[in-house]
Structure formats: C-alpha cells, structure tokens
Design goal:
The chain has four helices and six strands. Strand 1 and strand 2 form a beta hairpin. The termini are far apart.
C-alpha cells in the first residue's frame, strides 16, 4: 500500500507542476504579445515621423530653390516642367521630364501664381494622408505667404495658421491636397 501512496503523491505533484508550467507559458505569451504590440506601435510612429520630416525637408527645399532660382523674375512663366527641368523639384521626384510626384504618390506642381497674387508661385502636393497633413503644414508654414488644404485657406494671405481650420481641412478626407503660395510680400 505504501508504494501506491507515493505514486499517488508524485502524480498529484506532477499535475501541479504541469499546471504551473502552463500558467507561466500563457503569462509569457501574453507579455510577449504586449511587448510585440508596443514595438509595432513604436515602429509605426517612428516611420510616420520619418515620413513627415522627409516631406517637410523636401517641401522646404523646393520652396527655397524656387525663391532662389525664380523669385528674381517674380515667378513669371514658371511651370512644373521648368521646375522639374531645373531640378528645383528634385530629380528623385520626377516621374518624367515634366511631371513630379511626392512620396505619397500624389502630383507635385509648381506654377506661376501672378494672376492671383502678383510676385508669387503656387506649390501643391496632392494625395497627402490626413494623419500627416497637420504636421507637414506646421513644418512648412513659415516659408509660405498663404496655405490651402483641400482648397480652403488654413493660412490666409500674409496671415497666421488657423488651428481649427487646419484640423478641419486636414481631416476632411483620407488624403488632401496642400497648396503653398510662396513669393514676395
């Protein structure tokens, strides 16, 4: 009888150990899943921030080059083809000798805007995702006289950005077009 009791105790102890092992395994899986979710979220945020910074740098570069190369002529006769050909719009953005696209796949245009506002050009970026729109406008607003998002003023001519209008327009669609009026005051 004694041997069967010791077997019974071993079996009970073994079941308890198996239960603990299962519990610890499940706990490790849950913690691993949480860690993975946090890591993926941080990666996505870092990628979004990198995309915003790259776009802001690109836009600021185009505006600076346009002012340097064409500002002295009041942008008269400026076309996207001329901006692409002169590499005011960087060569990496050109999809042909006369057309350019941004990193979101939307058209980039840079044209004479003198009929609307003398001494200015209009730079536009189509297809900008709503989730990066506000950051891009905030990063570029100092170089523009006027900014429109989804065809509405968010920074009136020679004014300041209206945060409420900016938020409303940036979230008005999944992707929006941002247009900057640049040039002399």
């Amino acid at each position: 009888m004694t041997p069967s009791l010791s077997v019974s105790r071993t079996t009970g102890s073994s079941r308890k150990q198996q239960g603990n092992a299962l519990l610890y395994t499940l706990l490790a899986l849950v913690l691993g899943g949480i860690g993975l979710a946090v890591g993926v979220n941080q990666y996505q945020e870092a990628e979004r921030a990198t995309s915003v910074q790259a776009s802001v740098g690109e836009i600021n570069s185009i505006i600076g080059a346009a002012k340097q190369n064409f500002g002295q002529y009041n942008y008269a006769g400026l076309t996207t083809a001329a901006a692409v050909g002169s590499q005011v719009i960087p060569a990496g953005m050109a999809t042909s000798a006369t057309v350019a696209a941004n990193k979101f796949g939307g058209a980039v245009t840079l044209v004479d805007h003198n009929l609307t506002t003398p001494g200015t050009a209009l730079l536009s970026y189509a297809g900008v995702p709503a989730e990066v729109c506000t950051n891009i406008v905030n990063g570029t607003q100092a170089l523009a006289r006027r900014i429109q998002v989804a065809a509405a003023d968010v920074k009136p001519l020679n004014g300041s950005v209206d945060i409420g209008d900016l938020t409303t327009q940036c979230t008005s669609a999944a992707t929006v077009t941002i247009a900057w009026t640049i040039g002399r005051t």
